[in-house]
Amino acid sequence: MRILVVDDNRDILDLVQRVLITYGYDVVIARDGMEALQQETTSQPDLVVLDVNLPMLDGWEVCRRIKARRAVPVLLLTVRAERADIERSHEAGADDHLPKPFDITEFLGRIKKLLAHPAPTLLPPA
């Protein structure tokens, strides 16, 4: 399974990448919103882990654009943890919202759940 991880914080990016690789996932990384869209298009990941506070395009806009193209599960991993932020994440099409700092076990559990029940693939209009 391929996971795209998007975060501009190198420490978080490195941690998440190491954990996911340890658990057998193929990991693709991006450091800003535009790179995230490019990587999602070229790598066709099975899941996207996405920060909200990104340069170029914020994570909510990246999520909206990805979801407009195809129904890949998106987990927003962010310091934005207010009720309004969580609602905005769901409005953008995110499948889950996990606040930072986060517990690795909980993170992995959410990844497994999202991968076990992927969203149906959107079909292009006829």
TrEMBL record:
Native organism is Kouleothrix aurantiaca
GO molecular function terms attached to this record: DNA binding; kinase activity
Record Pfam families: Response_reg
State the Gene3D superfamilies in the record: 3.40.50.2300
Q: PANTHER family recorded for this chain?
A: RESPONSE REGULATORY DOMAIN-CONTAINING PROTEIN, STRESS RESPONSE REGULATOR PROTEIN 1
Report what the protein is called: Histidine kinase
Organism lineage: Bacteria, Bacillati, Chloroflexota, Chloroflexia, Chloroflexales
PROSITE patterns (UniProt xref): RESPONSE_REGULATORY
Which SMART domains does the entry link to? REC
Q: Which keywords does this chain's UniProt record carry?
A: DNA-binding, Kinase, Phosphoprotein, Transcription, Transcription regulation, Transferase, Two-component regulatory system
Q: Which residues carry this modification: 4-aspartylphosphate?
A: 51
Q: Which residues form the Response regulatory domain?
A: 2-115
A GO term (biological process) for this protein? phosphorelay signal transduction system
